[in-house]
Write a structure and sequence with these properties.
Elements: H1 3-21, H2 24-28, E1 31-38, E2 47-48, H3 50-55, H4 57-64, E3 69-79, E4 83-93, H5 95-100, E5 106-115, E6 118-127
Parallel strand pairs: 1-6
Antiparallel strand pairs: 1-2, 3-4, 4-5, 5-6
Amino acid sequence: MTPDEQQIDDLIRRWAAAVHAGDMDTLLADHADDIVMFDVPPPDQGVRGIDDYRTTWPPFFEWQAQGASFDIESLTVHAGGDVAYAYALVRCGTEAEFADEPDRRLRLSIGLNRRDGRWTVQHEHHSFVHR
């Protein structure tokens, strides 16, 4: 893993830990003001901008507080000069959901760019396989 890829790996794992902990400040810390996210729940057109991105998390935290997990299972990072991407499988769900679907995983794709010498999340895409 290159030094840039290690920095991005650390950034994503720090973000995932913040999601799991419900730590909004750390969750937002490395995201661009003009982030675009396509998420599992509506709106289907995605959210644009850090303020809209921020509003998507409280309902998730409430659901997660009922015993859901959010744990990175695998993570791959590829970095170029000023652009990078990563993809991951995340164990995201309740024990009841995993009892019904043991292999259920959230698919996560992240696009990053280097701004002012630091890696910044520009795009997130979260999805589940629909059966």
